[in-house]
């Protein structure tokens, strides 16, 4: 199944709603639907902050992913899509490192402190692993 960007899906939904029915949508919802979406980079930055905030290891990341799959599988799926889209883009040197700053990245049951030794390749590998973990959790939950 091809992956759609969240904005593409929104455009499809709004295209189905005829103009004469737009007035039936509550204004706060319509405002939310039509407001500009954050960039893919900003979407991933928010996700990374959620998954890395005050963690002690890979098990905690898995626990957060599993919790999000139960509570909001759509948001979790959007996280994986945003990560895939970000990794498919080219970036200036150091751009991906901005996602983690001085945070710790958990890779293969080890905690790697991303400081002076970090590079975009390490962050990209971690993001790819995170997206893979998200997809595995969604599949195991039948989502």
Description:
With 143 residues, the protein is mostly helical. The protein folds into two domains: 1-37, no CATH class; 39-140, no CATH class. The chain has six helices and two strands, in the order αααααββα. It has a two-stranded antiparallel sheet with strand order 1-2. Helix 4 packs across helix 5 (73-88). The longest helix is centred in the last third of the chain and has 21 residues, at 120-140. The mean pLDDT is 78.
Q: From the alpha carbons, calculate the radius of gyration and give it in angstroms.
A: 17 Å
- Number of distinct helices: 6
Low-confidence stretches: none
Oligomer: single chain
Q: Helix coverage percent of residues? A: 55-70%
Strand element count: 2
Bin the strand percentage.
5-15%
Strand arrangement within the widest β-sheet reads 1-2
Form type: globular
In round numbers, the mean pLDDT is: 78
Give the end-to-end Cα distance, rounded to a whole number of Å. 14 Å
Derived from helix and strand composition plus strand pairing, the structural class reads: mainly alpha
What number of structural domains do the residues give?
2
Sketch the major β-sheet.
2 strands, antiparallel
Helix and strand sequence: HHHHHEEH
């Amino acid at each position: 199944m091809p992956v759609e960007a969240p904005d593409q899906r929104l455009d499809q939904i709004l295209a189905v709603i005829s103009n004469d029915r737009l007035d039936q949508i509550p204004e706060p919802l319509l405002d939310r639907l039509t407001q500009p979406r954050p960039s893919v980079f900003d979407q991933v930055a928010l996700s990374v902050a959620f998954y890395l905030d005050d963690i002690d290891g890979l098990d905690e990341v898995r626990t957060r992913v599993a919790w999000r799959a139960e509570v909001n599988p759509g948001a979790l799926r959007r996280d994986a899509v945003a990560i895939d889209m970000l990794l498919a883009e080219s970036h200036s040197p150091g751009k991906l490192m901005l996602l983690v700053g001085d945070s710790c990245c958990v890779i293969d049951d080890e905690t790697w402190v991303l400081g002076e030794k970090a590079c975009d390749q390490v962050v990209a590998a971690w993001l790819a692993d995170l997206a893979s973990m998200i997809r595995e959790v969604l599949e195991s939950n039948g989502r």
